[in-house]
Write a structure and sequence with these properties.
Elements (H helix, E strand, L loop, with lengths): L19 H4 L2 E2 L16 E2 H13 L24 E3 L4 E3 L2 H7 L3 E2 L41 H9 L12
């Protein structure tokens, strides 16, 4: 994105694959630009799910070994450069995210992978369970907004951000 050169040529940069059974769990907001309609209690908000997956495509991705915590030196991502592992837990150490959280940000490991914030919804981590890029789960019947922590990590990965223009 920064250079305008596409290192993989004509190959897709992002591919989202949705299983047919999973598609039946999604609710498609008839006015997704407004995000005001109530999400049915037995459905996941499709905009939330797709935005989450695009978060992985943009920033929340990498190739750190999930057992050793060692990054692949040939293919470490911009996300990986800020990830540390203390032999038990993964943390994100980007300066913007650490400034916001006050210390390294806990990443998922037990229910999911380190490409998500928060592993358990208890203690200090509980504040991260509502982040779009949480590693716990999405609850049926609710939307997940892009949170300041999501944006901080994206910024630390070098993705340029600008404020949205107010709607008229």
């Amino acid at each position: 994105m920064r250079t305008g050169n596409d290192p993989n040529g004509d190959e897709p940069d992002v591919e989202l694959v949705l299983q047919p059974d999973y598609m039946r769990t999604l609710w498609w907001d008839p006015q997704p630009d407004q995000r005001r309609a109530r999400v049915p209690g037995d459905k996941l908000d499709a905009v939330t799910v797709l935005t989450h997956e695009l978060g992985h495509a943009l920033a929340f991705n990498g190739w750190v070994d999930p057992v050793s915590g060692v990054p692949d030196p040939k293919s470490a991502s911009t996300y990986d450069r800020w990830v540390t592992f203390d032999r038990n837990d993964f943390f994100f150490n980007g300066p913007t995210a650490v400034r916001l959280w006050g210390r390294p940000v806990p990443l998922a490991k037990t229910r999911n992978n380190y490409h998500h914030v928060c592993d358990v919804a208890q203690g200090p981590q509980a504040k991260l369970k509502d982040a779009l890029m949480n590693g716990i789960t999405f609850e049926y019947g609710r939307r997940y907004p892009i949170t300041p922590m999501d944006l901080a990590i994206v910024a630390d990965c070098g993705i340029p951000l600008r404020a949205a223009r107010p709607r008229r």
